[in-house]
Design goal:
The structure is a single chain. This protein has 13 helices and 17 strands. The longest helix has 19 residues, at 264-282. The protein has a single domain (6-380), classed as Aspartate Aminotransferase, domain 2, CATH 3.40.640. The model has no long low-confidence stretch (mean pLDDT 96). The strands form 5 sheets. Strands 2-10-9-6-5-3-4 form a 7-stranded mixed sheet, sandwiched between helices. It has a 3-stranded antiparallel sheet with strand order 8-7-14, with no helix packed on it. Strands 13-15-17 form a 3-stranded antiparallel sheet, with helices on one face. A hairpin with a 5-residue loop joins strand 7 (167-169) and strand 8. 37% of the residues lie in helices and 15% in strands. The chain has 381 residues and is an alpha/beta fold. The two termini are 20 Å apart. The chain is globular, with a radius of gyration of 21 Å.
């Protein structure tokens, strides 16, 4: 492959994307305009959700999600240790306590059984919510988590940042798109450049609750609303009803998001084609994330496990393949260790981390490039 660098992920921007951004730059609104609303509506329709709120990034989305659900200082929420830190940090932003349950060693998702055991080991009302993550693009079975959450009066936030276009099949044999709001109270998506839909930065929060939608919309915009205007007020009138944030997405980014969204189904299909190529080459030789029946993996990542992970990482880089590690378990990060989250038995997560490495996975990865990645990986063995 000469000296061409192959990253683990990258955005794909074509002329349609460029034209959409240029058109918006020449229009009347660069922010708080019609493109934001258009993007929200089209994204909600794509998933089958009732409402979508565009935000500046997924971290902001997670933050206002826990706020909208009323999380208070000292209240406890369960999440997975195998995720980007933002999935846990949002709990800390409002003074909540993070509790980690272990992962399933085959799917790498938050384990339902580990979560159940953790909940049932504590008194009723000890926990307030659960934040499962659709890790690498593989959907969590939220029907099962909803049943568990309802039994213990907990809310659910689906961190779907890796999974727009993924789905699981429920007990009625119906496809449930990630983030559609049928089981989780709120879903959160990311539009970072290496994700499926690249807006530079950006995110989307989805829900089927009108009450949560209204709260999310206020929190996204300083806690301000103009809903209480009356004949005694002029058009300038607004109320700041609570302490919110400037977490808005611009029209420029929204225009890019709209054109990117149009390509997502094709992109997810290509990601699955690449995943199947990897699986065919590695079957019986290298362990990779399992795919339970009825699941459709959106494949933000393709993760394998290998004993001498660091040596493979370095070997691939020497051959211009820039693989990545996803993720350092959150409970082992210095901040979380210092505030006391290192004592839980999370052996499956720690074992996974000792072996995991993410190979290149993005729609514009060519067959020739992938074959080079496969051959280089196998040659290491």
């Amino acid at each position: 492959m000469d000296k061409k660098v192959i990253p683990y992920g990258r955005q794909h921007i074509d002329q349609n994307d460029i034209d959409a951004v240029v058109e918006t730059l020449a229009a009347d609104f660069l922010t708080q305009g019609p493109k934001v609303v258009e993007f929200e509506n089209k994204f909600a329709n794509y998933l089958g959700a009732k409402y979508a709120v565009a935000v500046s990034n997924a971290t902001a989305g997670l933050h206002i999600a826990v706020m909208a659900l009323g999380l208070k200082p000292g209240e406890r929420v369960i999440t997975t240790p195998i995720t980007f830190a933002a999935s846990a940090n949002c709990i800390r932003y409002v003074g909540g306590e993070v509790w980690f349950a272990d992962i399933d060693p085959e799917t790498y998702l938050l384990s339902l059984e580990s979560t159940r055991k953790l909940i049932e080991s504590k008194p009723a009302g000890f926990f307030k919510g659960i934040i499962p993550v659709d890790f690498a693009g593989l959907p969590v079975n939220l029907e099962d988590f909803r049943e568990l959450a309802d039994k213990h009066n907990l809310w659910l936030i689906e961190d779907a940042c890796h999974a727009p276009g993924g789905y699981f099949t429920d007990s009625k044999d119906e496809k449930q798109m990630c983030g559609n709001g049928n089981f989780a109270d709120i879903g959160v998506f990311s539009f970072h450049p290496v994700k499926h839909i690249a807006c530079g930065e950006g995110g989307m929060v989805t829900t089927n609750s009108e009450k949560l939608y209204n709260n999310l919309s206020k929190l996204r915009t300083h806690g301000i609303t103009k809903e209480n205007m009356s004949e005694n007020h002029g058009g300038w009138y607004y109320e700041m009803q609570e302490l919110g944030y400037n977490y808005r997405l611009t029209d420029i980014q929204s225009a890019l998001g709209i054109t990117q969204l149009l390509k997502n189904s094709k992109g997810v299909s290509r990601r699955n084609e690449l995943a199947n190529n990897y699986k065919k080459a590695f079957k019986g030789k290298i362990k990779y994330q399992s795919l339970p029946n009825g699941m459709y993996n959106a494949h933000h990542l393709f993760v394998i496990e290998i004993e001498d992970r660091k040596a493979l990482y370095n070997y691939l880089r020497e051959n211009n393949i820039f693989a990545q590690i996803h993720y350092i378990p959150v409970h082992t990060l210095p901040y979380y260790k210092e505030i006391g989250y290192g004592s839980a038995d999370l052996s499956q997560a720690e074992n996974y981390y000792s072996k995991c490495i993410s190979l290149p996975m993005y729609p514009s990865l060519s067959d020739e490039e992938q074959e080079y990645v496969i051959d280089t990986t196998l040659s290491f063995l």
